[in-house]
Amino acid sequence: MPTKVIAVANQKGGVGKTTTAINLAACLAALERRVLLLDLDPQANATSGLGLEKTPGDSAYGPLLGEGSLLDKVKPTAFERLSLIPSEMDLCGADIELARSENHLLRLRHALQPVLASERFDLVFVDCPPSLGILTLNAFATATSVLVPLQCEYYALEGISMIHRLLAQIRDTGVNPGLHILGIVMTMYDTRTKLSHQVVAEVRQYFGAQVFETVVPRTTRLAEAPSFGKPIIAYDPYSHGAAAYEVLAQELLARLEAPAAPESPSPTVETSPSPADPAYVETHASL
């Protein structure tokens, strides 16, 4: 099976995006998949969450600008079959630098080619920044699919509606015609609140089978694990959070092995204008 590249993205911060990227990658490595996690977020939370240092020059920044090979940036982690391309502060300037570059939406695709050609990995997860800027658009232009973590809160539908429209624009402009949403993961689910139940029900009503059956609970142990540089299955393997991500990993594998289902239409939700909304892609997709 060809290497699958999965962008983990949500333009809103604090939704469990990096937590999901780290823990799914670790759980899939535990299932004997060879996994690479590419930390494309300048905050470098996925890097520290796996116990690696934020070292200048170790990120994808240089290869994105045509300097050096992304394959040389791959670092082993303490966890078998799980590798990482770290992030660091230099990536903060990547949006500006890439905007000045030729074929700026395809920079990550070109940089990732040697990694994919090496056949060292079965899955590549890209932890995107919490925005819809050029780094995230590069991830969308490169990925075979997108995984969307969605917090169980009031504005959840607004965020997923914007991502749906942006992905449609990426496909329609020909940047990445096969791009699709692999699934929506409901995170920070609190069984004690009526709001969590309502949000999950509403998201399932709009997006049906696109929403994973597994929901990730809000737990203290999940929140603690990154400060120890460990995924939850290493930090507390018998916790509710570990169980949720282990089941989610199995569900994700089943989806990867099945034909891609047609996407549900995006719900009509009023959203504020965004500088990186679909119009941005249309304007900047002359490749």
Describe the structure using short key phrases.
287 residues; alpha/beta; Rossmann fold; 12 helices; 16% strand
Description:
By secondary structure, this protein is of the alpha/beta class. It has a single domain (4-284), classed as 3-Layer(aba) Sandwich (Rossmann fold). It contains 12 helices and 8 strands. It has helices at residues 17-30, 45-49, 61-64, 94-99, 107-117, 134-142, 156-172, 194-207, 220-224, 232-235, 240-257, 278-284; strands at 4-8, 35-39, 75-76, 82-85, 123-127, 145-151, 180-189, 211-217. The chain has an 8-stranded mixed β-sheet with strand order 3-4-2-5-1-6-7-8, sandwiched between helices. Helix 7 (156-172) links the parallel strand 6 (145-151) and strand 7 (180-189). The longest helix has 18 residues, at 240-257.
Question: What layout of secondary structure does this protein have?
Answer:
Elements: E1 4-8, H1 17-30, E2 35-39, H2 45-49, H3 61-64, E3 75-76, E4 82-85, H4 94-99, H5 107-117, E5 123-127, H6 134-142, E6 145-151, H7 156-172, E7 180-189, H8 194-207, E8 211-217, H9 220-224, H10 232-235, H11 240-257, H12 278-284
Parallel strand pairs: 1-5, 1-6, 2-4, 2-5, 6-7, 7-8
Antiparallel strand pairs: 3-4
Helix pairs in contact: 1-11, 5-6, 7-12
